[in-house]
Amino acid sequence: MSSDRPRQLLLALESSCDETAAAVIDRQRKVLSSVVATQHELHERFGGVVPEIASRAHVERILPVIDEAIRQAGTTLSEIDAIAVATNPGLVGSLLVGLTAAKTLAMVLDVPLLAVNHIEAHLYACQIAAGRNVFPAVGLVVSGGHTNLYDCRSPVEFELLGSTTDDAAGEAFDKVAQVLGLDYPGGPLIEKIAAKGDPKAIAFPRTFLKDERLDFSFSGLKTAVLYAARGTPGSRTPPVPLTEQRIADLAASFQAAVIDVLVGKCEQALLKANRSTLLVGGGVAANSVFRNRLTEMADRLSVELIIAPREYCTDNAAMGAIGWELLDRGVFSPLDVDVTPGLVRKQR
Ligand code: KG4
Ligand code: ZN
Predict the structure, then answer these.
(1) pTM > 0.85
(2) Do the bridges between strand 9-14 and strand 80-88 make them parallel or antiparallel, or are there none, so unpaired?
């Protein structure tokens, strides 16, 4: 990599769950291409991601997705200066597909390999949106697999402040959607239906909201929605009929409970970590009601709020631009680096 080169290019790969993605990002963090092949149609009828199906689909899609990202960026593989890939956390079989492709390319092209933490990358999507340094900050990643709060000291120093003790918020959206007879992924559909409902119709629990700890729990809420929809086991009172309006009220009341907790915990974390910037990323951050509530809270606290742009909220490879931060600091990975599916915070 010579410094007189007109541009330096990073190829980032992402295959941690059910999206196969590749992106080309230049050294100034400009996203030149971002290609995402979703597998939603494959997992829809199961109401969630089936790991075996996901791995197989990644194998089929990874090469066409890389080709398309290179083509859309108007470059060639020989111009790529480094390869970034999400190696944790995620589904083991899915992660392995991206890592194997990344290792092969790094070896053949003789360029550095950068192992990226998928959750930290979700927060880095905020830096891409801002186009400048956004650290230090408090960061919330709220997706189908994770609900984590971090004190983000720098783009490579993330301290976990709290996380979910059971379901992730996005997972709760997906499971509640199933209860209400909606398709997968449930988040966007719940948001749509909730717009016609009353968020105060049912007083669902706001677990840990009044608690000092910065953890989350959504499984009790999920069960409360199930009982409200289908009746409490052993109760003689029949459930309210699931009319269209009742479904909308359940969706709106559920969404309000999740958002109250997420926004409340962000506020607590900002005060505890004494930060004046809040970064929010992950699939649930695509939710408009959530975005509006975050904006209100940030205005009230005079905190700068940076939410990942919608296209970089759900899984994508552009957020793998965080690989540049590793490269800048000489944090390369050897070619025998492995995936660490359960690792939430990367130990370096
Ligand atoms: O970040 P992501 O694409 O994948 C993971 O890393 O998990 O997040 C997907 C999750 C799903 O659970 C989906 O239901 C949720 O994000 N989601 C939403 C919305 N859009 C996606 N949840 C609530 N409202 C939305 N508009
Ligand atoms: Zn994700």
Answers:
(1) yes
(2) parallel
